[in-house]
Design goal:
By secondary structure, the chain is α+β, with helices and mostly antiparallel strands. About 30% of the residues lie in helices and about 30% in strands.
């Protein structure tokens, strides 16, 4: 088929999906029913693991140039410090959270995608689709109202929380709506009591107040409005925001100009499967949760990167479909569930209304986050460098102390795993690695042994996760895994 993959939705997740497919040589078409690209800030936090993975396509450097690096998260209650979380020791080339407006992220992704000859088609709506064993037939309506039926091998839904694809599939979006209304906005301001390299969370009896600095004189501000009323909440204007900041903040902060505001409910929902035949769901189409921690866009982008190399291998005939494509749901749905649980827990902690429980929370947060192992565990979770796939069907046999499915840290001075024009597994080793690459041409490339594992053969996936590891001379023990992935279904 001329168009192998249809991507519905041209936000950060859809653009990442299209970019990954395009750079691997897969024909892709990306559409969005909204006629114009996003101009508001929306998602602003890009975490280290996302930057590591976007580095494969060359996106990260430009994003970092456009954004603000935040290296410390402060938590205060009643104006008094409770805890300070440092991000500088995260084991990543990007030991910070990057604050960059979503429209900037999308612009960088679009520019990079255009380099492969792919331009999002805006104002194009997916009306319906049918699928069979051979592909997906989609009915599309163009911006001028004309309708057409087109055929694709695969459909990927990156069309947000109100996903048309999810509705057409009839998938349940199970979960709950939390009982508070919220508002957020981007403001120019003065008097922020921390450097622009530090974010802050102010616990308050009436509701938390969060500041995410985007520049020395600009920040994203999020706060709760109180119990949900059952009707869509209205965004506050600058004057109303100022009053809340004065009531809940440290004092001395003055809003000097409004960039953007919105109001929202917090939903915690997830589909029961990220795959339905030849249709896949990613990002908010598959899972939504509290914005606490700023994980939403990151989780969606990582969904796209996880799926894209697998879909590319199958589309290009390098791997069989069943094990490879089924692994997407097996790997990413637990991650989505974990993010929902963790972000929901942080939201509930920040919105405790009982005075005694608030005091207990402050004491426990202070004590626990003062313990280095606890802080490392928290920053690993927030930065997503601790995300792994220990139950993946793509994992090889456990040999020695290796942990298949774990993240392989980027190796300084070498191209990121999966950064080439083909979605190849990297056999990092000596003679055994060369033998494995010879046995599986087009699926495996040879690289130098991993630092600290010079005597071992490490098989690393295109997304930088360990598939298998063992003695270099025992390379044949990895043959069954690759044979199964390459075999015919």
């Amino acid at each position: 088929m001329e168009n192998q993959v249809l991507v519905a939705g041209a936000g950060p997740v859809g653009l990442t999906m299209a970019l990954e497919l395009a750079r691997y040589g897969v024909a892709v078409r990306i559409i969005d029913r909204i006629a114009d690209a996003e101009h508001s800030s929306r998602a602003v936090a890009v975490w280290p693991r996302t930057l590591e993975l976007l580095d494969r396509s060359g996106v990260s450097r430009e994003l970092v140039e456009r954004g603000n690096k935040v290296t410390v998260a402060n938590i205060l209650s009643g104006g008094k410090p409770v805890a300070s979380i440092s991000l500088e020791k995260i084991p990543s080339p990007y030991p910070f959270v990057l604050m960059v407006p979503q429209y900037e992220t999308e612009a960088v992704l679009r520019d990079r995608l255009a380099g492969y000859g792919v331009v999002p088609q805006r104002g194009v709506e997916l009306l319906a689709f049918d699928q069979d064993e051979a592909g997906v037939s989609a009915r599309l309506r163009a911006a001028d109202g004309t309708e057409s039926s087109e055929r694709f091998s695969w459909l990927v839904a990156c069309d947000g929380a109100h996903s048309v694809v999810r509705h057409l599939l009839g998938l349940d979006f199970k979960g709950d709506t939390l009982g508070l209304d919220w508002t957020q906005g981007d403001f120019h301001l003065s008097g922020y009591p921390f450097p622009s390299t530090q974010m802050a969370v102010f616990y308050h009896a009436d509701g938390p107040l969060l500041f995410f600095p985007m520049a020395p004189d600009r920040a994203r501000v999020i706060t709760s409005l109180g119990p949900a009323t059952g009707v869509p909440p209205a965004a506050l204007d600058q004057q109303a925001f100022q009053k809340l900041i004065e009531a809940r903040g440290p004092g001395g902060i003055t809003l000097a100009g409004t960039v953007w505001t919105s109001a929202f409910h917090i939903n915690e929902r997830q589909v029961e499967s990220y795959r339905s035949g030849r249709v896949f769901l990613a990002g908010d189409a598959a899972h939504i949760h509290s914005p606490a921690g700023g994980q939403g866009m990151n989780t969606g982008i990582q969904d796209a990167i996880n799926l894209a190399w697998k879909l590319a291998q199958v589309s290009l005939g390098k791997a069989a479909g069943t094990a490879m494509l089924d692994s997407y749901d097996v790997e990413r749905r637990p991650v989505g569930a974990q993010v929902i649980e963790a972000s929901g827990r942080m939201t509930r902690m920040a919105t405790l209304s009982n005075t005694a429980l608030q005091h207990l929370r402050d004491v426990m947060v202070h004590l626990l986050l003062g313990v280095p192992p606890v802080q490392r565990a928290l920053t690993g979770l927030m930065s997503e460098v601790s995300v792994g796939y220990p139950e993946s069907p793509l994992n090889g046999p456990p040999l020695g102390s290796a942990k298949p499915g774990s993240r392989v840290p980027p190796v300084a001075g070498t191209p990121p795993f999966g950064s080439g024009r083909a979605p190849l597994f990297a056999a990092c080793g000596g003679a055994g690695a060369a033998s494995l690459a010879t046995r599986f041409p087009g699926l495996v490339e040879v690289r130098q042994p991993l630092p600290g594992s010079e005597d071992l053969l490490s098989l690393v996936r295109p997304d930088g996760y360990l598939a298998a590891q063992g003695p270099d001379e025992d390379w044949v023990l990895m043959v069954p895994l690759l044979t199964r992935l390459q075999g015919n279904d």
